[in-house]
Specification:
434 Repressor (Amino-terminal Domain), Rossmann fold, two-stranded antiparallel sheet, 9 helices, 16% strand, elongated
Length: 198
């Protein structure tokens, strides 16, 4: 059974790591309009739908009645409340894991929403994420899918001991490097097909 327009729109926006406000700005509408579309209270007109598709870089048809497709690429998420870490980390993860679907989040709640709808094979998590701890985020991700490999990424070595109590696979210090990622991939608790290194 296909997803609703509201669910597809939210998923596509989150996959692009775009906030409701950012999408609203691109469309020249209020954020409340985007929120209304994503809750199903309202539906945009045909002209707006075409503009939404362009902003999200998808076909218009991809926004409607999209059946769940088997996910061939493993999902890898990077969660850090500092956008600069995502900006610097993405090219490294893409270089080391070209066969993965890599998605970044600055808000833990968005990462959890993604994890509830997509099996996450590997998660790189900052430990200090504002109000929520990356340690707690790890535990919740493992409740959603126990075979998620979690690697903590932090600037504080003193967190290492606490990190191991969560069931994580690894721990590495910032800044993220290709060498560090490769080292962690060789030690994953649950090996993942599709994360082979080039």
């Amino acid at each position: 059974m296909g997803e609703s327009f509201a669910a597809i729109l939210r998923r596509k926006r989150m996959e692009r790591n775009m906030s409701q406000q950012q999408l609203a700005n691109l469309l020249f509408v209020d954020r409340s309009s985007v929120a209304g579309w994503e809750t199903g209270r309202r539906v945009p007109d045909a002209t707006l739908i075409a503009r939404i598709a362009a902003c999200l870089e998808v076909d218009v048809a991809d926004l409607f009645d999209s059946p769940e497709q088997p996910e061939e690429k493993p999902n890898v998420i990077l969660v850090d409340d500092e956008r600069i870490i995502l900006t610097g980390g993405f090219p490294i993860l893409e270089e080391v894991m070209p066969g993965a679907n890599i998605v970044g989040f600055t808000r833990p709640s968005d990462a959890l929403e993604f994890a509830r709808n997509h099996r996450v094979s590997l998660a790189f998590l900052d430990i200090e994420l504002g109000k929520i701890s990356g340690l707690d985020l790890c535990r919740t991700l493992l409740e959603i899918y126990p075979h998620t490999n979690v690697i903590f990424l932090t600037a504080f070595m003193e967190y290492a001991f606490n990190a191991w109590d969560t069931g994580a696979s690894g721990f590495t210090l910032k800044p993220l490097t290709a060498q560090a990622v490769r080292k962690q991939l060789s030690r994953l608790r649950y090996p993942v097909r599709g994360l082979e290194q080039p």
